[in-house]
Structures are given as structure tokens and as C-alpha cells.
């Protein structure tokens, strides 16, 4: 949101260590302009224990997401995707693979 990672540290190794330990911060210098609502959303998803993380559907219900993404919905959208070209591509790849090993 600010263009700066909340895990950022003095070196790449320290930054990686922060990620592994889920050790982050929102320094006012960089995150002061970011709303508390947005920061709360980030805090909610930066949880080490996967069982305690919100689902994607729950994330879409976030007041911050709802506020800025009017078309966000926790209801899955079912759209049919044309697969004809994909099927043709797969067939060509199979044929190319067969020709290479013939």
C-alpha cells in the first residue's frame, strides 16, 4: 500500500528472517498516510498460522475492500471460459512432444 514492505530491514537476510518470523511493522514515516482500516486488513491476513487466516471470501467482506472495490463480492462468479483455443494448444503440444521423441 505504501510501496514499502512491512518486513523490510537493513539487509536481505534480515528481511527474509522477518518474513519467516512474521515480524513486521508499519513505520509512520511510510505508512502514516495509509488508513487504519487498510492496516487492520493487512494485519488480519499477515498471520503465521494458516488456520487463523481469513479465507479469500472473508477478505472480500472486509470493510476496507468493500469501501474501495464496489464490485467485490464474497459470492463466487461463475463465468464460462471458452476452452477451444486451449484444447487446440494442448493438442499441438502433445503432437510436438511426440514428434520430438519419434
UniProtKB/TrEMBL annotation:
<keyword id="KW-0418">Kinase</keyword>
<dbReference type="GO" id="GO:0043065">
    <property type="term" value="P:positive regulation of apoptotic process"/>
</dbReference>
<dbReference type="InterPro" id="IPR011009">
    <property type="entry name" value="Kinase-like_dom_sf"/>
</dbReference>
<dbReference type="GO" id="GO:0005634">
    <property type="term" value="C:nucleus"/>
</dbReference>
<protein>
    <submittedName>
        <fullName>Kalirin</fullName>
    </submittedName>
</protein>
<keyword id="KW-0067">ATP-binding</keyword>
<dbReference type="GO" id="GO:0035556">
    <property type="term" value="P:intracellular signal transduction"/>
</dbReference>
<keyword id="KW-0547">Nucleotide-binding</keyword>
<keyword id="KW-0808">Transferase</keyword>
<dbReference type="GO" id="GO:0005524">
    <property type="term" value="F:ATP binding"/>
</dbReference>
<keyword id="KW-0723">Serine/threonine-protein kinase</keyword>
<dbReference type="GO" id="GO:0004674">
    <property type="term" value="F:protein serine/threonine kinase activity"/>
</dbReference>
Amino acid at each position: 500500500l505504501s510501496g514499502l514492505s512491512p518486513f523490510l530491514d537493513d539487509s536481505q537476510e534480515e528481511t527474509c528472517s522477518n518474513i519467516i518470523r512474521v515480524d513486521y511493522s508499519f513505520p509512520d514515516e511510510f505508512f502514516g498516510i495509509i488508513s487504519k482500516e487498510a492496516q487492520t486488513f493487512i494485519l488480519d491476513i499477515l498471520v503465521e498460522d494458516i488456520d487463523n487466516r481469513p479465507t479469500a471470501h472473508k477478505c472480500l467482506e472486509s470493510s476496507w475492500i468493500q469501501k474501495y472495490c464496489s464490485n467485490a463480492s464474497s459470492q463466487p462468479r461463475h463465468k464460462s471460459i471458452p476452452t477451444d483455443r486451449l484444447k487446440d494448444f494442448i493438442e499441438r503440444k502433445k503432437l510436438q512432444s511426440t514428434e520430438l521423441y519419434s
